[in-house]
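Good morning N.,

You mentioned wanting to compare the apo and holo forms, so I went ahead and generated the holo version with S-adenosylmethionine. This is what I fed in:
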Amino acid sequence: MYDYFEIQSKVGITKHMGGLKSTKELLELCGVNNSHFVLVAGSGNGVSAVYMHRWTGCKVLGIDISEEMVKSALEKAEEGVEFIVGNVEDIQFTDNTFDTVISESVTAFTNKNKSLSEYYRVLKKGGYLGLNEVTWLKEPSSEIIDFAQRVMGLEGENKDHWISLLEQAGFKEINSKLYTLNQRKQVLGDLELQKTGFFKIWVRFIYYYLKDTEYRKSVHYFAREGLRIPRDFTRYFGYGLYVCKK
Ligand SMILES: C[S@@+](CC[C@H](N)C(=O)[O-])C[C@H]1O[C@@H](n2cnc3c(N)ncnc32)[C@H](O)[C@@H]1O
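and this is what came out, ligand included:
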């Protein structure tokens, strides 16, 4: 059985809450400009990393733990944007390398103490971290926590806990903005994130679905479980943009 990310990485799909609109907002809040060297931690299929470069002129390096994701991202690489395999819990760069670190819908899937300490370590002094992370808007029931863990593979946090994790990692001047999830806008945002390579995504999906029994079974499992989403899930499930300084 493939997990949630393996299904997506085989075909090159990734997403984050709020789509490219929230990417733009994070860049603005972090003050990214064309002199910056930006680490995109958990760059997925690379689409938002490419936009970060195009919008601001900054130099971008994306790392992702999945070789397949990096392969898909490399198809979109252009001058000023690179992608390599790497683990955000153990980043292969020396201290004080990057002007900015941006991570969108990644940290919640990792050992948060490790990844946040690594973002801190590789940032230059005075540099900003911009996070877009799943955040519980209200205390979730055990049914909702179980759904998020089992189907999405993530451990959500509430805003105060994200802030205390960032403080523990050493960050200061922590600002946060919370958003509820608008399902219609989210679907449109997800589609926008896949628009580069949309045709390839479908070809790959059909290929794996027909050729790989394990893939087909996993898709059926997640589709079935996804339909069992607790009724008021989106009243609890939102996201936060967190910006803080080293
Ligand atoms: C929900 S996707 C978001 C991808 C991308 N940030 C985007 O917005 O499209 C999460 C990504 O995090 C990557 N990931 C998960 N754990 C990781 C880790 N420990 N180190 C690096 N990447 C990781 C996954 O492979 C996946 O590509």
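The radius of gyration is 17 Å.

Happy to go through it together on a call whenever suits you.

Best,
F.
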